[in-house]
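We were asked to recover a plausible sequence for a given structure. The inputs and outputs are reproduced exactly as logged, with field labels preserved.

PROBLEM: sequence recovery
POSITIONS: 256
GIVEN STRUCTURE:
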């Protein structure tokens, strides 16, 4: 009987370990799911805070003409002095209907730009300005400055001095650190689809192009981010239209 008892004890021990591992796995998945939801919410807050300060916001002309917008909240520099940087966030693009797509999880890595920022955690915003830049983003992996032209974006809701020149770039890039918001050079950084978080967000892996072209329905947790993107892109478009009308009236008055 003794050998049988020991065998049962061993079996019970193995089963207990298995149940424990399954429980840990469920807990990790739940935590990770919570993390992606929090990251989407944080991306919405980054846009709200940046666009809330008119003289330091992304210009109306940039927001109204955006093809895609990506936000990386709290990106960190892994090794100060070695250029190792890493961040996770989400991207959305205008679809053929003009609506904004469901968000696609993204990861950005590499580049020596971290040296410009002293190594602290920062928020990044990338605005894709034309079809060529959008095509590079839809490829699910591209390097800024190599595959797609990029420039530090102009700042100030009504900025115009160098906006026209910079808007010829495929991607305009911005950073916010210690309350300071400014354009930043992200040359050499690589933006890719985050496949693991895509699976967590949508319950399965979905190709980048399918998400960003509007073939996937947005989750409930995505609403704050998409609402912020719609609000500021449409608000900027209305403001740009009003400025154009005012300018036309001014020119007519001057001519008379």
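RECOVERED SEQUENCE:
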């Amino acid at each position: 009987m003794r050998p049988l008892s020991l065998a049962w004890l061993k079996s019970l021990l193995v089963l207990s370990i298995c149940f424990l591992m399954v429980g840990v796995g469920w807990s990790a998945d739940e935590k990770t799911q919570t993390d992606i939801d929090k990251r989407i919410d944080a991306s919405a807050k980054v846009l709200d805070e940046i666009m809330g300060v008119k003289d330091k916001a992304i210009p109306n002309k940039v927001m109204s003409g955006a093809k895609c917008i990506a936000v990386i909240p709290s990106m960190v520099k892994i090794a100060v002095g070695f250029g190792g940087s890493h961040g996770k966030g989400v991207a959305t693009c205008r679809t053929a209907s003009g609506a904004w797509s469901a968000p696609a999880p993204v990861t950005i890595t590499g580049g020596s730009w971290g040296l410009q920022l002293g190594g602290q955690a920062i928020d990044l915003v990338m605005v894709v300005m034309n079809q060529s830049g959008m095509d590079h983003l839809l490829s699910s992996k591209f390097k800024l400055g190599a595959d797609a032209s990029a420039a530090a974006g102009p700042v100030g809701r009504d900025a115009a001095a160098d906006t026209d020149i910079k808007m010829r770039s495929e991607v305009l890039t911005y950073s916010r650190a210690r309350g300071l918001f400014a354009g930043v050079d992200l040359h050499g950084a690589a933006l890719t689809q985050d496949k693991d978080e895509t699976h967590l967000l949508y319950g399965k892996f979905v190709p980048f192009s399918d998400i960003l072209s509007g073939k996937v329905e947005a989750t409930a947790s995505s609403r704050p981010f998409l609402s912020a993107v719609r609000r500021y892109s449409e608000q900027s478009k209305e403001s740009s239209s009003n400025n154009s009308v005012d300018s036309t009236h001014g020119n007519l008055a001057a001519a008379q």
